[in-house]
Amino acid sequence: MDNLKKDFAQRLLDIKAIKLQPNNPFTWASGWKSPFYCDNRKTLSYPGLRNFVKLNLTHAVMAHFPEAEAVAGVATGAIPQGALVADALALPFVYVRSKPKDHGMENLIEGELKPGTKVVVVEDLISTGGSSLKAVEAIRRHGCEVVGMVASYTYGFDVAKKAFEEAGVTLVTLTDYEHVVAIALETGYITEADVKLLGEWRSDPAHWQAPE
User: Fold this and answer.
1) Which residue, 22, 85, 165, 170, has most beta carbons within 10 Å?
2) What is the pLDDT of residue 113?
3) pTM recorded for the entire structure
């Protein structure tokens, strides 16, 4: 197991950012029902963990996308993480809305982003990848190059992997579903039965139904 992914997974479990509700599933923005939810935005409320996320996202950018000239956060979840990373790298920061605001300048991208800029995108969580890649499209339409994306967590769904490949976007994450489930099982946070149920959900999340 990757040490960073294992470490961050444990930290998410420690602050109860991982929720498991097989009998009362969550409903995602995509409409999918899920027995599993990762709320890694809770890391913002813990200064030590917030700094951990900032440093490791920053290191990911430096290691994988050193050519980046600006940082873009995806609204709303990744605005704070993106700003923290941009500050650590001393780079310009913008954020990308899910849709243009309905007043004033009607901006989709907030901040100053010059066409031709090489941009690294910061996300907090990747599920289907839809909202993340819409931000990529907006930046590209603006005349900029997206050099890659860093995120705190990914569920690693096949549909997201395919979408990122088709969009030509390299994704680097601090942890993922496999590491979180492994650590949760190892520490007794979940049982083998939970792992089986989660596996059934993850194999076909669009059609998964809560157990009767």
Assistant:
1) 85
2) 96
3) 0.93
